[in-house]
Specification:
Helix content of chain B: 40-55%
Number of strands of chain A: 9
Strand order of the largest sheet of chain B: 1-2-3-4-5-6-7-9
Largest sheet of chain A: 8 strands, parallel, barrel
Largest sheet of chain B: 8 strands, parallel, barrel
Structural class of chain A: alpha/beta
Radius of gyration of chain B: 20 Å
Helix content of chain A: 40-55%
Strand content of chain B: 5-15%
Oligomer: heterodimer
Radius of gyration of chain A: 20 Å
Largest interface: A-B, 49 and 53 residues
Strand content of chain A: 5-15%
Order of helices and strands of chain B: EHEHEHEHHEHEHEHHHEHEH
Structural class of chain B: alpha/beta
Shape of chain B: globular
Order of helices and strands of chain A: HHEHEHEHEHHEHEHEHHEHEH
Chain lengths: 376, 359
């Protein structure tokens, strides 16, 4: 898996536009290091349930994790939006955010992301305006345009049938009207929401969203766990096309990636069979619940299925601390990410928190590319 | 009040999260938390949040988020929406939100549903409000909770996660007889919005009882009537608060939109905009309020319960000043909810088949 990633990475690293970088930890320093700081890390949570587990129990584990990563120095805790998928208890994202923010004190809590075409922008503004009013300075609004469910589910959510995400830019614009300062003649105001300036991040897994984030001068979060192919090209395009805005002077790139760190490579790979089994089942149209790890995936999948799962997950960084450190350094170097959003799913909660603990240690050793913190 | 509750007046709270001048929206929400904690402490039956849009003096536009906020900071109080305006949303989205709340706070969540807009026409447009038939939307919502779509229905394979199998108590709310009859016909509890439509309360409750058919959820009818109340140490103080709320509301509806003003701000400040049509509307609404000292309010609430035959009175207090508002609810509880008299569950489940309801 890593081998394939390496190949592509080398090609990208050869491109002139990718600046030499600060990953040299051997002591050879550049001027960059004067302003450099550790790579920021955050959490993405899909609130996966175990087979037969109630959503409430899975959410309780998420709350515990949020408290733990808050202590470990993670910057944000984001929850995703998925609908009608047995095994993912993250459909009502704003309710989850409210629940998790109530149980934590300082960590930023947000959506990764709200699938904007599924909602009226005014409703999203009111929900996140409410959260921001209750937890000032702690709420993030990540926005995506994917359905987050199948066709009938989108109909049930009253998403426009012809809607393919093309109206995403205009929906963002409408939403920003409700979150920004009141405009002259504005008839409908978001109460709360108006002038709350909840920070928006554009999420995506394509160059389309990279370009949109760049044009709007907003932070961009790339879902490498969904689209491992596009990460470097999207990152590059985002930086090239970035137009400074009053929200953000310089590009700010977040990259979401699956990570499992454990005592040894072998132990981590074993834990990784839990997300592998889930993706395999999803490909087969089965439920997406968490299953215990297995010694080997070989009895479970055919060659084609194996190829499909490994291909989709080839950005995943799985292994001992040394392996994960090398993987994260490579990711940060190739993408020049300012922040890595870590998606770790294991069957046992202690393996999950153990992995996040190891990643926190590793991230502290890695220097971020820009050295400029994005306040939001 | 009804015999089957042993003569005890059941009271609950409807919170619009009013915003006072000189404070932030955050202050208003944290005040709501305090109010809910008071409600739990002194024995109010339930605490509901309203849904309103585009009204700078009412901050409760996202009931599900607010319910999560309040439920996380209380332990046993029933918390819910009063109500979610269903045509503003996709039923599946409401099922997911309240299914999640019920998962997080089992047995504590009420989902009150209404069909008005909670705002003006432009806000409705911005909310992408649908003109689909209400009863149909309600049927869709119930089918998602129960997983009971008819064979071949396009949503038959769409599962609400969470939501399917974790249904909170559903209430139908209304200001006329339509929702009353609908609630009765399908055997759900009913809430009448008397705090803004008091004239219909007797007829609505009567229509509800007449049409009631027992259901798996509810064996006998249960009706709430809401009413606007301001209680203070004396009749005079309460009336002064009420007058300020009245003037603030007329001004807000007449053009100058902002938080509620204090009695002092109104008495000392310059006159604001004033539309005769709005004055007439607000006067009518405010004339049904129960305003005064503890004894005045107690008599008013008891008379309302007698008159309407309501099982429970829900109190909506929209006024300036967070501590004065908290005090109002506290005084009412002191006068009407003697804590040491009877245990809350001692009179049975009020017709709800699930004893978790706390009736």
């Amino acid at each position: 898996m890593n081998h394939r990633l390496d190949t592509r990475v080398t090609a990208d690293a050869g491109a002139e536009t990718v600046a030499p970088h600060n990953l040299d930890l051997t002591g050879k320093t550049t001027a960059l290091q004067a302003t450099a700081q550790s790579l920021a890390v955050s959490v993405l949570d899909l609130v996966a349930t175990r087979a037969g587990e109630a959503a409430g129990s899975a959410i309780a584990r998420s709350v515990e994790l949020a408290r733990q990563v808050e202590q470990l120095g993670y910057k944000r805790y984001w929850v995703a939006e998925h609908h009608a998928i047995q095994g993912l208890a993250c459909s009502a994202t704003p309710v989850l955010i409210g629940h998790i923010a109530a149980a934590t004190k300082t960590i930023r809590v947000g959506s990764g992301g709200v699938m904007l075409p599924n909602h009226a922008p005014l409703v999203v503004a009111e929900q996140f305006g409410t959260l921001e009013a209750i937890y000032p300075g702690r709420i993030d609004l990540g926005l995506g345009r994917a359905p987050g469910g199948d066709f009938q589910t989108m109909r049930a959510l009253r998403r426009g049938l012809a809607q393919d995400g093309d109206d995403f830019p205009s929906l963002i614009e409408e939403l920003r009207t409700y979150l920004g300062p009141e405009r002259p003649g504005q008839v409908v105001k978001a109460v709360p929401g108006q002038n709350s300036n909840v920070p928006i991040t554009v999420l995506g897994s394509s160059v389309f969203s990279a370009q949109l984030a760049a044009t709007l001068g907003l932070p961009f979060a790339f879902a490498a766990h969904l689209a491992p192919d596009n990460v470097n090209s999207a990152a590059q395009l985002y930086r090239q096309r970035f137009r400074p805005s009053h929200k953000l002077r310089k590009p700010y790139l977040l990259v979401a990636v699956q990570v499992i760190a454990a005592e040894t490579d072998e132990a981590a790979r074993r834990l990784f069979t839990t997300p592998q089994q889930r993706l395999l089942r999803a490909i087969r149209g089965e439920s997406a619940e968490l299953l215990p790890p297995v010694e080997s995936m070989d009895p479970l999948w055919h060659d084609e299925e194996r190829a499909a799962v490994e291909n989709r997950m080839r950005a995943a960084i799985v292994g001992s601390e040394a392996t994960v450190q090398a993987g994260l350094e490579r990711l940060a170097s190739n993408t020049r990410a300012d922040e890595v959003i870590v998606l770790t799913e294991t069957y046992e909660h202690r393996d999950r928190t153990d992995s996040y603990r190891r990643v926190a240690r590793i991230a502290a050793e890695i220097l971020a590319s820009t050295g400029e913190a994005y306040a939001g | 009040m009804r015999d089957d509750v042993g003569g005890r007046l059941r009271l609950s709270i409807l919170d619009h999260t009013p915003v006072s001048s000189g404070s932030t929206l955050g202050d208003a929400f944290w005040h709501s938390t305090k109010l809910a904690q008071l409600a739990e402490e002194v024995g109010y039956e339930r605490y509901w949040v309203a849904e309103h849009h585009n009204m700078p003096w009412l901050a409760s536009s996202s009931p599900a988020v607010l319910v999560a906020h309040v439920a996380a900071r209380t332990t046993s109080l029933r918390v819910g929406s009063g109500g979610i305006m269903l045509p503003n949303y996709a039923p599946l989205a409401v099922v997911e939100q309240f299914g999640m709340l019920e998962e997080l706070h089992p047995g504590r969540i009420d989902l009150g549903l209404g069909r008005s807009s909670g705002g003006d026409q432009v806000a409705s447009h911005a909310l992408r409000r649908t003109d689909q038939e209400y009863a149909q939307m309600l049927a869709e919502l119930l089918a998602f909770f129960r997983g009971e779509f008819p064979e071949g229905h396009p949503y038959g394979r769409v599962t609400a996660v969470p939501g399917h199998g974790t249904m909170p108590n559903i209430w139908l709310l209304g200001s006329g007889t339509y929702s009353a009859e609908l609630a009765g016909t399908i055997g759900l509890p009913f809430g009448h919005g008397g705090h803004f439509a008091a004239a219909n309360n007797i007829a609505a409750v009567e229509a509800y009882r007449q049409s009631f058919r027992p259901s798996p959820a509810l064996s006998k009818p249960y009706a709430i009537v809401s009413v606007g109340v301001i209680c203070a140490e004396t009749d005079e103080i309460a009336e002064r608060h009420h007058r300020a709320a009245y003037v603030s509301t007329v001004r807000n509806l007449s053009g100058t939109r902002g938080p509620l003003l204090s009695a002092h701000e109104i008495e000392a400040g310059p006159p604001g905009p004033w539309s005769a049509a709005q004055e007439q509307f607000v006067t009518e609404v405010f004339s049904s309020h129960i305003v005064g000292s503890q004894s005045t309010v107690k008599a008013g609430l008891e008379a309302l319960a007698q008159r309407t035959g309501a099982d429970e009175i829900m109190i909506a207090t929209i006024m300036h000043g967070y501590s004065d508002r908290l005090r109002s609810y506290e005084l009412i509880a002191e006068a009407c909810l003697p804590r040491n008299s009877i245990g809350i569950n001692s009179q049975g489940t009020g017709g709800f088949t699930d004893a978790r309801n706390g009736f």
